[in-house]
Amino acid sequence: MAIKNYTTRIAATKTIGEIQEILAKNGAFRVSIDYGNGGRVLGVSFALNLEGGVQAFRLPARAEAVKRILQKQKAKCTDEHAENVAWRNIKDWLDAQMALIETGQAEAAEVMMPYMLDEHGRTLYEAFANRMLPDGK
After folding, report:
1. 6 in a structural domain
2. What whole-number distance in Å separates Cα of residue 24 and Cα of residue 19?
3. Neighbours of 46 (CB within 10 A)
4. Is residue 85 part of a domain?
5. Is residue 128 part of a domain?
6. Is 27 within 8 Å of 10 (Cβ atoms)?
7. So what's the pLDDT on residue 131?
8. Angle between the 63-72 and 79-102 helix axes, to the nearest 10 degrees?
9. How far apart are CA 7 and CA 44, in angstroms?
10. Cα 15 from Cα 31, distance rounded (Å)
11. Is 116 helix (H, G, I), strand (E, B) or coil?
12. Which of 113, 92, 90 is nearest to 33 (CA)?
């Protein structure tokens, strides 16, 4: 089965702008973009005021993983297209999570927990994976 948004023609930069808009509309008071080699966006970091205080989060995009899946499915895929697909899926996920929060079905910390940053700048998932999962995966 083809992965969601595999046919997108929407540029990652446009989608990242939409992500920033979703975050701002839903209470983020700080949003920053994490860049890698060649100006590729690796993640979007943001902060929310939660009941227990300010909490930082990072949503990573793993375009190389998307590219591997698309190639396995025999779809034509450039690095740029994989990045576009990765970010579009993150935007859709974020939009769905915000709908759960808005309708009272979940707390922000509940749905964003894997992406919370610890005191070392790692997401809680990354910290967990490094300690608990074989080969950190």
Report:
1. no
2. 9
3. 24
4. yes
5. yes
6. no
7. 83
8. 110
9. 23
10. 14
11. strand
12. 90
Q: Note whether 74 and 89 are within 8 A (CB).
A: no
132 vs 125: CA distance, rounded Å? 10
Residues 6+ apart with CB under 8 A from 128: none
Q: In whole numbers, what is the pLDDT of the chain averaged over residues?
A: 93
One-letter amino acid for residue 53 of the chain: G
- Domain that includes residue 123, residue range: 12-136
User: For residue 2, is it within any domain?
Assistant: no
pTM, two decimals, is: 0.90
Confirm if 75 and 6 have CB atoms less than 8 A apart.
Answer: yes
Nearest to 89 by CA among 71, 107, 69: 69
CB 49 within 8 A of CB 109: no
Contacts of 114 (CB under 8 A, 6+ apart): 123, 124, 125
Distance CA 101, CA 20 (A): 17
Amino acid at 1: M
pLDDT, tens digit, 9 for 90 and up, residues 79-130: 999 999 999 999 999 999 999 999 999 999 999 999 999 999 999 999 998 8
For the chain, the domain total comes to 1
Closest by CA to 91, choosing from 25, 40, 29, is 25
Residue that the structure tokens 């809680």 belong to: 124
